Predict the 3D structure of the following.
Amino acid sequence: MGNTLLDAVVFDFDNTLVDTKSTIEHAYSRIFLHMSEEYNVSLEAIRRELAAVSTDFEAVGNYDRMQWFDAILTNLHVNFKQVEVEKYVNDFYSMIESPKYDPAVESVLVSIKKLNKKLGLLTDSDYKPGTKMKRISKLPFARLFDKIEVAGDTIPYKKRTESPFVIIAKDLGVAPDKTIYIGDRMDFDIKNSKKAGMKAALITTYNDTRGLEDVVEPDWVVSNIREVLNIIK
Ligand SMILES: [Mg+2]
């Protein structure tokens, strides 16, 4: 049965189950090189705008690259057409369709299921409805989840509040206080899952420091996906 205080394990997706950070970095490099040549602006200027734009958008949980790239090009004062932004955005999302991830992910999820725990995935939407779910469904371990919710898409609220955490516990038929959420962001993941009454573990594999200024105590800190089993067993 494993840890009898826990009936369910719910994971965040980006930078928790998959290495979104380096996958995205790779896509940025290729797209920004294109932008630099197309509009005759330096890569440094594009990176500077990315830093400013991402700080503003991430603070409110907006990951829609259509809005990001539009804002970057607008702030660079270059002459661009909407159709060109759309091309960059389509390229971006197709480049991140096969993210890198720790090969242990699948076996860890299988072990959790063998301990008779419900398995959930709760992630924020980052583009048009349906696109995030499509991306997740392509990964071989997606089939192991009892329930996948894309906050802001399959359910109306993003992870900026505790609502989606309450909803996925309900989906899985478990009490929030017998559920653990595992995520990389101190603000949305740890703070709001705890607000919903869940236990929370911060995963530091990809060293995401966003939201670390929020003073919340995760119940556990793990440095990789395999260590999650130490909590559940
Ligand atoms: Mg994440």
